[in-house]
Amino acid sequence: MTVSVMIVDDHPIWRDGVARDLGEHGFEVAATAADGDAAVRIARAVRPAVVLMDLNLGSSSGVAAIREITTQLPDTRVLVLSASGEHDDVLEAVKAGASGYLVKSASVRELVAAVRRTAGGDPVFTAGLAGMVLGEYRRMADAPSDQQAPRLTERETDVLRLVAKGLTARQIADRLVISHRTVENHVQSTLRKLQLHNRVELARYAIEHGLDQEQEGRG
Amino acid sequence: MTVSVMIVDDHPIWRDGVARDLGEHGFEVAATAADGDAAVRIARAVRPAVVLMDLNLGSSSGVAAIREITTQLPDTRVLVLSASGEHDDVLEAVKAGASGYLVKSASVRELVAAVRRTAGGDPVFTAGLAGMVLGEYRRMADAPSDQQAPRLTERETDVLRLVAKGLTARQIADRLVISHRTVENHVQSTLRKLQLHNRVELARYAIEHGLDQEQEGRG
DNA sequence: GACGCTCTCGGGGTTTTCCCGGATCCGCGC
DNA sequence: GCGCGGATCCGGGAAAACCCCGAGAGCGTC
Question: What keywords are annotated for this sequence in UniProt (chains A, B) (predicted)?
Fold first, then answer.
């Protein structure tokens, strides 16, 4: 029986290339999508066996789409095919329900094998990533479910974004029309939550998590 | 006459897909390469009309490869096909000699048209990027070649790298075995040279220029 | 209504950063 | 030699950041 595959990536050229590679190796490319929302919608209609998915989908979040798909379609397995291979990306994808994680530097042969094994129910990870997931699992087992997801309040996120831009507390206070002491308080609580020690680390955190790119004013 | 094209990208799947797309539209894919060094070496032998090139080649620098190719092969035009479309990436590529810049979210049709126009000698830029280059040109024309390359001393670079990691002046002083006041002075002169205002902006600068990734101790 | 959370503001302290001047050394040209 | 610019080093003083604390107002939940 043929395995139906769905390809999610915001690059049309990439989608076409992967679709052809898989088609030539006996898979049925049942659908493609360019962003997370479309992926969820189409996957629900098509019910592919494997969703081959990029994490970096321009604006929308690939991780959220993975979570939607794996919860709504328990028979569909998601194989992430991403450029990064970054520690956090891998763990987030796995937490969201991904069955495997391949970096885009993989060869066509590796890709084909990975899709086949994913369809068969085996978890597939690029060399090095499997150990990463295992290590994180152990750390979770040691510390029985405490932080790992320190969520910031809306105001803390506002302040964090401006701190990451290099503004001082007074400049941030002017923009948000509050006291600079309040700004400093938000900075402090953010530092505590993220277990960081100063604004530079805060800026690094914001940059690595893409918080510094988003627009601020929406009303 | 057929246009010979060379494809440089560290993702085999991407290379194959692009090669097939171009092949089906009458281009001759004369060569492919996975990194900058190979690109320069092979391009010198093959002398393609157009080099279709990713900037993000894993370890090696795409910009350096562009510079090599365009200086050594004046008849070869380099069309960058990159994921980012970031301000600095575009400008660096153009400065290195790229004839055009396409983001990877382009369609196959756009890609084919871009390669054709690049071969014909027209500069090709994704919408929005052309204005970016023009704007930068104007800024250069306004300020008659003053800064644009503020070089830092060795010690300033050492300090900058550690500042970008989030270390305080005292921690940096301990590592470099100097007084923390001296560290602060290096920070100050760096701020002046780069026309920045605080350590967070310094960290952003270092991250954007890749200074924070390099190792520090080589002796 | 009690509770918890967020956002706001401030007191009062230490530490760090930011900005200035001043010192030494070293290479380079006159 | 002697000045001159640079790189590197150090210090004083003002500003900002960091850290802990308490407190009121608003807003949902139980």
Answer: DNA-binding, Phosphoprotein
**Is B98 buried (19+), middle (13-18) or exposed (0-12) by CB count in 10 A?**
buried
pLDDT of residue A140: 43
Enter the pTM of the model: 0.47
Which nucleotide's C1' is closest to B184 (Cα)?
Answer: C17
* CATH number of B4-130, picked from 1.20.1250.20, 3.30.300.160, 3.40.50.2300, 3.40.50.150: 3.40.50.2300
Question: What is the architecture, at CATH level 2, of domain A4-142?
Answer: 3-Layer(aba) Sandwich (3.40)
Q: A199 CA, C12 C1': separation in Å?
A: 22
For residue A136, give both structure tokens.
């994180």
For residue B164, the chain A residues in CB contact (below 8 A) are 200, 204
**What is d(CA A145, CA A119) in angstroms, rounded to the nearest whole number?**
31
Q: Which CATH number fits domain B154-208: 3.90.580.10, 1.10.10.10, 1.10.1040.10, 3.10.105.10?
A: 1.10.10.10
Residue A167 pLDDT exceeds 90: yes
Among B103, B172, B204, most A C-beta atoms within 10 A, so best to mutate, is: B204
Average pLDDT, chain A: 81
* Best B9, B13, B16, B199 residue to mutate vs chain A (most A CBs within 10 Å): B13
Residues above pLDDT 70, as percent of chain A: 82
Sign of CA dihedral B71, B42, B13, B118: positive
At A113, is the pLDDT very low, low, confident or very high (cuts 50, 70, 90)?
Answer: confident
Burial of A200 per CB tally in 10 Å (0-12, 13-18, 19+): buried
- pLDDT tens digits, A22-43: 999 889 999 999 998 899 999 9
Name the stretches of chain B with pLDDT < 50: 134-135, 137-149, 215-219
- Annotated domain spans of chain A: 4-142, 154-208
A4, A30 Cβ separation under 8 angstroms: yes
The protein residues having a beta carbon less than 7 Å from any atom of strand D are A 168-170, 180, 184-185, 187-188, 191-192, 197-199; B 153-156, 176, 178-179, 181-182, 184-186, 189, 198
Residues of B in contact with A57 (CB under 8 A): none
Q: Which of B92, B46, B43 is nearest to B72 (CA)?
A: B43
Burial per residue of B117-140, b for 16 or more beta-carbon CB atoms within 10 angstroms, e otherwise: bbbeeeebbbeebeebbeebeeee
